[in-house]
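Please decode residue identities from the backbone states below.
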């Protein structure tokens, strides 16, 4: 019985080299689906209604993270004056939301001039201006401060309002010449705790880390590095789940159980090999995208995810190398040692790796 099992692969037709075409089709399909899954940028009716005054509705759009929304109206004069509105949901008894602009070369927390609205435990609200410095990132107190330096942004007419859980802060800001409304670096954030007028550290989820954007207020078009990273994460996840989590096990199941059931199928070996190679190729592409994401992440390291990914890739590669050697060689190793020892551990690592990311 065992000799027939091992010899069947050598007697089966040789697999044609169609996997590059299949891989390309799969890759473009997943890239298309992940791109189409991007959410709409139109702001909600509730937010639009809260920022409409005297029948005039500012420009507005949804931001890319934290379910936040942003609105603005531009007034041109010697310095650029902009009415800005920022809204986010504060579901807890206390919390805070923040929006600000950064005069640097890229949008980031350090150096941002911000307005922060605070929801107190007694259900009252307050909004103040803050200067976010490098000390803030190190854990120093963040307290209200006047932004009165020369050639600095000026916040005036600060207001805060709420409707159910949606809280909106607004202000009129005067931007000096070093700010460019066609390329304005703005940052937003939401936190769960505040001590008086001091907002406490916000969560460090990917949504919080990616809450930056460079926006053209004249065209409403924003460019977010975080949004591109999220797109790559989506592609990375889809390719790895389909490649390593579905196709590789499917190829094994097909070879193990469907050679003679429900009827004898002489092309099972061709299907087995092509499914395995396509699955490995997609998984490897996803793994490579993960390397790029890991290299570009300045604040995040998924250590367990990385270790499991290295394990999965290493033993998937060993399986492919072993297959190349077992077309006529070491068939006992490919059919016995791999599925019973390494294959089970690899499948467990794949699904454990997928589950480990749900908390992010």
């Amino acid at each position: 019985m065992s000799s027939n099992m091992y010899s069947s692969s050598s007697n089966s037709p040789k697999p044609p080299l169609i996997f590059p075409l299949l891989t390309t089709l799969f890759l473009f399909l997943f890239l298309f689906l992940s791109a189409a899954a991007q959410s709409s940028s139109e702001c909600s009716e509730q937010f639009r209604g809260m920022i409409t005054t005297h029948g005039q509705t500012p420009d507005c759009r949804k931001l890319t993270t934290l379910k936040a929304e942003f609105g603005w109206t531009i007034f041109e004069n010697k310095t650029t004056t902009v009415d800005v509105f920022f809204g986010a949901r504060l579901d807890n008894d206390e919390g805070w939301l923040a929006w600000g602009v950064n005069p640097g070369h890229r949008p980031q927390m350090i150096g941002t001039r911000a307005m922060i609205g605070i929801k107190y435990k007694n259900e009252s609200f307050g909004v103040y201006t803050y200067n976010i410095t490098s000390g803030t990132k190190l854990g120093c107190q963040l307290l209200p401060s006047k932004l009165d330096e020369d050639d600095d942004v000026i916040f005036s007419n600060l207001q805060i309002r709420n409707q159910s859980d949606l809280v909106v802060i607004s202000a009129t800001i005067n931007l000096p010449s070093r700010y460019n409304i066609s390329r304005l670096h703005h940052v937003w954030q939401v936190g769960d705790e505040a001590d008086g007028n001091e907002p406490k550290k916000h969560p460090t989820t990917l949504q919080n880390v990616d809450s930056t954007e460079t926006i053209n207020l004249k065209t409403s078009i924003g460019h977010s590095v975080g949004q591109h990273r999220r797109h790559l994460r989506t592609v990375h996840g889809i390719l790895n789940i389909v490649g390593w989590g579905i196709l590789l096990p499917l190829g094994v199941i097909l070879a193990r159980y469907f050679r003679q059931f429900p009827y004898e199928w002489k092309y099972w070996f061709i299907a087995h090999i092509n499914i395995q190679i396509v699955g490995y190729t997609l998984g490897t592409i996803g793994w490579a995208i993960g390397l790029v994401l890991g290299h570009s992440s300045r604040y995040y390291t998924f250590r367990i995810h990385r270790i499991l990914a290295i394990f999965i890739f290493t033993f998937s590669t060993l399986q492919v190398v072993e297959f190349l050697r077992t077309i006529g060689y070491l068939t006992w190793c490919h059919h016995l040692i791999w599925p019973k020892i390494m294959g089970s551990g690899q499948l467990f690592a794949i699904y454990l790796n997928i589950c480990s990311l749900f908390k992010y």
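Observation: The mean pLDDT is 80.
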